């Protein structure tokens, strides 16, 4: 396994790669989390593919930007800079949660650089899904947790917030034992959150996305259901395949790693 920092766009970005073959780049969620959400769950795929991961700016072990400014466009350009460093003309992107937004936004800006898109815990193609997500979370919480969540979120207590919401992100709470602990960047989360709410809209990019094969694997018990995701994307990426993953919540690679790896490998083999 190769671990190293790549200096791109003024920051040292922590990267990790292993395996050989066709390249697959994994984009973590948050915003503000890290690549650790995928490990060790995706490691079996390294027998057939070159797996590439990185911590987004200010996340995990990567540097924060000098101006402390975070945005969707900056993350798109960081990904493009890394693609050039890695030396691949085309890559398949795997986007999880906010990573699905980043993958779609990158594909809309650099469609010729994307071979396929594999998305999970998807949010949709515009800000409506992103705004709906926390509403569904609040609705799912019991009254006591809801009050604690609102209090800690208002106070900026990120650790307490994560402790409260994690059980609602999975189908079975025992799945959380397979989740690695990771640091969380509140500033990146808040700034990109606002950027998504104001600017995320892929409707003008239907043409750019239509030639890219897209598979979305959505947990049956995710906060945004497979049916809701299908409804939100059908006018922009009608060719996208949406697969319902039963007995699974938001963190599909943590809860159902074998099935996720199977579905990704199957998708990669489709010509």
- Class of secondary structure makeup: alpha/beta
Tell me the number of helical segments per DSSP (H or I, 4 or more residues long): 10
Text of the CATH class: Alpha Beta
Briefly note the CATH topology name.
Rossmann fold
Stretches where pLDDT is under 50 for at least 5 consecutive residues are none
Tell me the CATH architecture.
3-Layer(aba) Sandwich
Give a quick account of the main beta sheet: strands, pairing sense, barrel closure: 8 strands, mixed
Helix content: 25-40%
Kindly report how far apart the N and C termini lie: 29 Å
Q: What is the count of structural domains? A: 1
What order do the helices and strands follow?
A: EEEEHEHEHHHHHEHEHH
Q: Shape from CA axes?
A: globular
Average predicted confidence as pLDDT: 95
Q: Approximately what portion of the residues adopt beta-strand conformation?
A: 15-25%
Radius of gyration, taken over Cα atoms and rounded to an integer in Å: 17 Å
CATH homologous superfamily designation: Alpha/Beta hydrolase fold, catalytic domain
**Count of DSSP strands:** 8
Offer a few descriptive terms.
271 residues; alpha/beta; Rossmann fold; 8-stranded mixed sheet; globular; Proline iminopeptidase
